[in-house]
Amino acid sequence: MYRSNNCGELRSGNIGQSVTLSGWVQRIRNLGGMTFIDLRDRYGITQLVADEGVDEKVTEVIGSLGREYVIKCKGLVLERTNKNPKISTGDIEVQIQHIKVLNPSELPPFTIEDETDGGDELRMKYRYLDIRRNPVKNALLLRHKVAQAVRRYLDSQNFIEVETPFLIKSTPEGARDFVVPSRMHTGEFYALPQSPQTFKQLLMVAGMDKYFQIVKCFRDEDLRADRQPEFTQIDCEMSFVEQDDILETFEGMITSLFSEVAGVDFKQPFQRMTYSDAMAIYGSDKPDVRFEMCIRDLTSIAKGKGFGVFDNADYIGGIVAEGCAEYTRKQLDDLTNFIQRPQVGGKGLIWVKIDANGDVKSSVDKFYSSDELLAWAEYMNAKKGDLMLIMAGSNAKTPEVLGTLRLEMADRLNLRDRCKFAPLWVVDFPLLEWDEESSRFYAKHHPFTSPISTDIHLFDSDPAAIRANAYDLVINGVEIGGGSIRIFDRKLQHQMFKVLGFTEAEAEDQFGFLLNAFKYGAPPHGGVAFGFDRLCAIIGGSDSIRDYIAFPKNNAGRDVMINTPSILSQIQLNELGVMVKPKE
Questions:
Q1: For the packed helices 532-540 and 134-156, what is the interaxial angle rounded to 10 degrees?
Q2: What is the mean pLDDT of the chain?
Q3: Which end of the chain is more exposed for a tag (fewer CB within 10 A), N or C?
Q4: In this model, does residue 314 exceed pLDDT 90?
Q5: Distance CA 416, CA 422 (A)
Q6: Annotated domain spans of the chain
Q7: 291-415 topology per CATH
């Protein structure tokens, strides 16, 4: 028997018992007459102790031990003299009677401690060691709890879990596909699914009524903290539902999940906000509503006063940073430099300070009187001691830049409390978005999203104005999930394909299987997909989903542990009928 108990299990009630433990050596402390060993496994740490009277063979084994050795120990549970309240087993220790090395270990490349000396790349290379650390282990345990809580809730709502294929047909819309060459069908390729979208719609045609799946998805896109080339979705679909039915069902899931896993209680129904309001007030379609600092449109009261930057702009807007009137010129220049970064895209920043006496000072006081600037302050609800930050430019871009500045100021002012959660639904997205480079419309969500019924007539006259029957769940400025009511009418689906630039032949080639299914009685249906990794990260208080994935890729999309992607041998390429073009 390798163990009678785990290393996080023993308590005062076990004193006097003979036990067997196995695990990894966390640390060894030799105090001359006594030696203490911290033994670790997934469940915790137990202190082992050996005194001068221990058997010589035991002494010999203890003397050979190093960090991360795998050992087995048999001994007697004693009350600990110096109790340790920081660990669950801190009231006891185990007096070593027999000890055996099950497997020695080389010195690890970084310390297996909560606060480690290993950098990201080193820890990713030795991820199997990194997972031994409490922060990573606990993140994976949280991931497990989230998965189990989701399954329990959806099962209670009569959803059934159905697996869908990983080797599917490539589609041209959305992000780039990862493709898989077929050996048996030379020159032909599978694609890995960006989502199970068409399959879950087919399951509704098949009468499954309520489907879900915790499923891997794949997208060949640029990476950042909340993206990985492979990620996990909670994928769901329902038949005979309207938007309100779906929002109510999944508010219930999120409420149940946060209560069970995080001990956080949400009030239902969640706040709802239109896409147009989110962009106008927060400069983002995923607004963080834990704090105010809303954007105000100043165009009508600031334009036409002889200041060319404002007079030549389509839009003028600003935010109020409370209590920041004492910002120095250096701090203001730093904010200007921030918004002028290429990834932000701003041009310039106008500031107005209201000091403790109510006097105003501004970077544009040559063009505007104190009364005019105070009128801005009144309009924006700025008070004594506040700082107004104002930008001008295009209607489309300027609110987005202000939204980015708003989040930056919130970070600098510590307004984004990780222990506070503010969920809301963003609804009424545009159905389509125009791409200048290709001079065509693309689906804002995907080609199967239904337009709002009252907007269908705009397909012929004003496609850009069509609203989608779509919705995103946002928590703390992070898009947690999104979905839509689907098109289930073959004629409307063809109309959607037409405005996206598909010929009938192209639509049949790419999606004929779905269009054919619609011939046989497709029910009204809709669904939603939640970013499982993002949910785990936001519950755990992290900015990166990598912390909640057992074996993630790095920011370049590489797995440095197994060294992939890698080059295939010429024999494999020949079997697949694939020729690799040298990189120019």
A1: 120
A2: 95
A3: C
A4: yes
A5: 11
A6: 12-103, 137-155+203-273+424-548, 291-415
A7: Gyrase A; domain 2 (3.30.1360)
Q: How far is CA 162 from the centre of its chain?
A: 24
Cα–Cα distance for residue pair 270/248, rounded to 1 Å: 9
* 519 neighbors 490 (Cβ within 8 angstroms): yes
Contacts 24+ apart (CB under 8 A), 133-138: 135/547, 136/547, 137/42
Give yes or no for residue 222 having a pLDDT over 80: no
Which residue type sits at 285? Answer: D
Tell the CATH topology of 12-103: OB fold (Dihydrolipoamide Acetyltransferase, E2P) (2.40.50)
Q: CA-to-CA distance for 536 and 544, rounded, in angstroms?
A: 10
Look up the pTM and report it: 0.93
Q: What is the pLDDT of residues 389-401, one digit of tens each?
A: 999 999 999 999 9
| C-alpha of 307 from chain center | 43
The amino acid present at 221, given as its one-letter code, is E
- The DSSP bridge partners found for residue 486 are 449
Write the DSSP assignment of 34-50 as a string of letters.
-EEEEEEETTEEEEEEE
The mean pLDDT value for 232-239 works out to: 98
CATH number corresponding to 137-155+203-273+424-548: 3.30.930.10
How is residue 332 written in tokens? 């203001």
* Amino acid found at 394: S
Contact 318, 301 (CB under 8 A): no
pLDDT tens-digit map of 61-93? 999 999 999 999 999 999 999 999 999 999 999
Q: What is the dihedral of CA 411, 415, 417, 420, to 10 degrees?
A: -140
Distance CA 406, CA 504 (A): 45
Q: Assess whether the region 12-103 and the region 291-415 belong to the same CATH fold.
A: no
Q: How far apart are CA 47 and CA 34, in angstroms?
A: 12
**Contact (CB, 8 A) for 53 and 44:** no
Q: How far apart are the first and last CA of the chain?
A: 60
Structure tokens given for 129: 């060691």
Task: Report which of 458, 326, 316 is spatially closest to residue 395, judged by C-alpha positions.
Answer: 316
